[in-house]
Design a protein that fits this description.
By secondary structure, the protein is mainly alpha-helical. About 60% of the residues lie in helices and about 5% in strands.
């Protein structure tokens, strides 16, 4: 009988005696990789009640219980490390980047609003906001430093804002530099997501764009899970609240989730938006499956999708008319 153990392969007789042993070296990493392969294969495992420790002594792998348990402990730790290091797959890195981008967007928006409100007391006529305001503060600081060549020179000279003291100016410039670095970091993450999507999910990027495709992977949990979803599920990803409300009460079912940001959907007339969303979701589901199972880019997907959407819009040029209920009597006008 053949038995695969974490330290090698054993051939045993009918009585359980070891007839032959093909032992592995005592290299911890090699033993850990072998143990993980046994977990995945699930073949020729020791039968219930088989004493691995005694077998390790009989075949000469370990000379004492202390050595056996030491090796087993080290192999278990190394196997756990290998599992953790292999858990961050390429699509998981995209998910982490999307979540980091969301955090940066939230932080950047909050700090930009605070900077705008703070600096607005010194230069309310600037009309700047967001990154433009942060760059202006980093460059000039006080409005008194704005030169004649600057577009805001006249506004700065005639501003009704308070005077910016030197201590406040230094603090605001440091604050603005932090905001500028967040905007730069956001652009770096967006570029990383776009490049990663081209390598991992080129068809999904082709249909949805890099950001929407990455968010679909993030909400699904992985590219593999997204590929397993039917198109009806892809259509309503991100609309969990509306879906639960529909299931609990008589609220209308959601026609789309985050795929509403797709230009073919949000630019479609309201009366065909549901049909367009179904067509887009169908192609997104197909693109995810091609990316996961083959990875070959199919440029015809966009052409087929655009043709399908054009057919939907051509077949429904006008909104549907409300049907008058049969037998309904017209309301009588009240006399004054």
């Amino acid at each position: 009988m053949k038995i695969d153990t974490w330290f090698g392969t054993l051939e045993t007789g009918r009585a359980g005696e070891i007839q032959e042993a093909r032992l592995l070296s005592k290299d911890i990493r090699e033993l850990a990789l072998h143990s993980l392969s046994l977990r995945d294969s699930r073949s020729d495992l020791p039968p219930e009640g088989f004493d691995l420790k005694a077998a390790a002594f009989d075949c000469g792998f370990a000379e004492s219980p202390a050595e056996y348990y030491f090796l087993l402990h080290e192999v278990t730790l190394e196997a756990a490390k290998l599992q953790v290091s292999g858990a961050l797959t390429p699509d998981q890195r995209i998910i982490q980047a999307v979540e980091a981008l969301d955090d940066i967007n939230e932080t950047t928006n909050a700090l930009s609003e605070r900077l705008s409100e703070w600096y607005g007391g010194y230069f309310p006529e600037s009309g700047l906001g967001g990154e433009d305001l942060a760059l202006f503060i980093v460059k000039y600081g006080s409005r008194e430093n704005v030169g004649p060549e600057a577009p805001l020179y006249s506004k700065a000279r005639n501003s009704m804002g308070a005077k910016l003291e030197s201590a406040d100016e230094a603090l605001l410039k440091g604050f603005a530099e932090s905001v500028c670095s967040l905007y730069e970091r956001r652009r770096q993450i967006e570029a990383y997501i776009e490049n990663s999507m081209e390598l991992i999910a080129p068809n999904l990027k082709l249909i949805a764009g890099p950001m929407l495709g990455a968010r679909l992977i993030s909400l699904a949990g992985s590219l593999g899970k997204l590929a397993e979803f039917p198109s009806s599920t892809v259509q309503v990803i991100g609309a969990s609240k509306a879906l639960f409300k529909h299931l609990r009460s008589r609220a209308p079912s959601p026609k789309h989730g985050i795929i509403y940001s797709h230009p073919l959907i949000n630019t479609a007339p309201w009366w065909v938006r549901g049909k367009v969303a179904r067509a887009v979701a169908s192609k997104l589901s197909l693109a995810a499956r091609i990316d996961f199972y083959s990875g070959e880019k199919d440029l015809s997907l966009t052409e087929k999708l655009e043709a399908k959407v054009l057919q939907i819009r051509t077949s429904n040029p006008r909104p549907p008319q409300k049907k008058q209920e049969s037998g309904a009597k017209p309301k009588k006008k009240r006399r004054k």
